[in-house]
Amino acid sequence: MNRNKYYDPADLQDFPNITEDAPTQGNAFFDYYARALEAGALSEREKALIALTVAAVRHCPYCIDAYTTKCLSLGVTREEMMEAVHVGASMSAGDVLAHSTQIRKIIEQKEM
Amino acid sequence: MQRQHQLEHLARTPNAEQFHHKLASPIYARNVSILQLNVGKRCTLSCKHCHVEAGPERWEVMSEETFRACLEVQKRHSVPTLDITGGSPELNPNLEWFINQAAPLTQRIILRSNLQLLAQEDFRHLIDFFAERGVELVVSLPAYTQERTDKQRGQGSFETCVQVMRELNQLGYAQPGSGLALNLVHNPVGAYLPGSQTSLEQEYRRNLEHRWGVRFNRLFALTNSPVGRYLEFLIRSGNFEQYMDSLIQSFNPGAVEDLMCRDTLSVAWDGGLYDCDFNQMLDLPVDHQAPSHIRDFDLQALRRRRIAVGNHCFSCTAGAGSSCQGALETE
Q1: Same domain, A59 and A95
Q2: Total-model pTM
Q3: Is the predicted pLDDT of residue B101 greater than 70, yes or no?
Q4: N or C end of chain B, less CB within 10 A?
């Protein structure tokens, strides 16, 4: 682990060890995480694409690395991954623009 | 890439992790229930991930004399499964003769193929031949989509595969109750491990059965071993360290118990004996006093032999484990 570097890929190896400090919560999280990502009504593949989209929207380099690899390993094509990221990008743009209705409402209320 | 160079590179793993350090004790074979014959390195394709480094220019082909030595072993010991691989086994001129001779001497014959040759006029008769002899087919198909397969293997290769699979289905392959098995093999086309076999099988089935109308029995998801062309690719693309790290981090002690080398003996085109096809390509013969040529086959010594291991073995113990029959642990 490189102590002089943020977002070092090797940091991820330390991730399971976060349970050392708050074991109850940490273990509960990892259990929940595993359950949430396993195949259910949605396939493992569909969940990996959702996770990749969230990773890009949340700007998490660790998750982007992990879920791009996971998608590749499950046979997801690059076109499918890019389409999924566009869903995230358009939703992000949409949620910014949807807030403009608040701006418009306040303007309507306050302007003479 | 020279064998010695490959071994030297494989020794340089992240944090100097060595496979034999991970083992509680040396691995020993427990039987020889599968005789895997690599009948030649000649192949129609030169896949980038091929650990055999097979291709059309290769000249190494199993001779009739070596085949006869294998038949002698079968006559004496009736090894339950003969697993024929290559290269393209169809390119060996003695293949049909050998299968005819071997069929009464074994319970099961598996043949590994990319199906490309079976669409050609000179080889089409093999489709009926395999069905009549009850040969189980294991077909390598890197992806379930036309685009990705063609990108890896060349224009038209996916359609050829589908066309031959359709003919095999018509003869009973992958049809319930026929006893004719048609299994597929998936290898990742890149520097990553395969996803879950169950999940990949669902996707292959959804696409191949529903979209293309072809059936198969099971999908085997294989982890690429860092050997041959695949090792070269990892080094050239700067992925070697990360790939080895992924294999090492995914080491599953539970997979060691069921490693394929414990029940399989690999025979090279020249009759040399190895613990597996990967060891064969790295020129690591069976070790520890076991006979190393098919003409000296000694079941008692070979079924208790100590397995020769190296860092490439991490590919068989990662995650759910990997073997020529797919994942070692399935959901």
Answers
A1: yes
A2: 0.89
A3: yes
A4: C
